[in-house]
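S., here's the first fold you wanted:
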Amino acid sequence: MVDNADQSSEARQKLAALQGKTGKRPNIVVFLLDDVGYSDFGFNGGGEAVGNATPDIDRVAGQSLVLSSAYSQPSCSPTRATIMTGQNMAHHGIQVPPMYGQPGGLAG
């Protein structure tokens, strides 16, 4: 993890304010999408500007704390395996998606 002190501080303040306002900790929703780029959505400068409006996800983003400092891979397999195991891709070994007929996947 690369810690950005300003973003971390702002996130902690916003989460504390939300908990103080509602009396409970917030729900966290992770959207895991394949074949989308950072600027494909309107809230990141894309959407209608690149020929595909994204009003629903833009509305969700507008009502949320968007955490944008992250690493990504060129396919969703490493990310899915990381979420499922809690391990970095260097540890679980899924670095590319197995193609049809190839061995691969998570053991067990």
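And the second, which I think is the more interesting of the pair:
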Amino acid sequence: MKINKTLSYYNENADTFVQGTVHVDMWKNQQKFSGRLKKGSYILDLGCGSGRDTKYFLQQGYCVDAVDGSEKLCRLASDYTGIEVKHMLFQELKEADKYDGIWACSSILHLPAAELADVMGKMAAALKAHGIVYTSFKYGVFAGERNGRYFTDMTEEKFAEFIKDVDELAVEEQWTTWDARPERGDEKWLNLILRKQ
């Protein structure tokens, strides 16, 4: 139910969302992720939104699959990236041992904690041995609806407690950043690199 409302938000506000995010500079985070991958590695952009990061990774020579739960964002991201963006919910991820890395930037934070743990397990299954995940959450302990979407926020302590239930993944690095969008500069984010065990 919560997720459907979130998807409705993105379908209804897709154009505005793309305009506000497609040119945001994520280079430092992209580098922390891609610096752990070999050239030509296979990446899943899970919840690709505007397609900004998919396009960057394609330009760097990586193989990329991109998916999103919003049909409208899939269309816009397909046009922007030049590849077909698959319409898929996080819960529908069924790949096994396929990806070297999964990029889940500001995406899986829309899942309630119980569903988040299940999806993290699916992400681990989709990774090759010792594969990595990049993900990010708004910084805090809030969980619930905010601005028409569902959010699960995380702090270092809250995530450490949460990840105990996901045996296959462990935190390799974590850091905080301020939102890169000019009008959101006071919003803090928790960024994580997770490694498949």
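Why I say that: Residues 2-196 form a domain with the Rossmann fold fold (CATH 3.40.50.150). The chain has a mean pLDDT of 94.

Talk tomorrow,
H.
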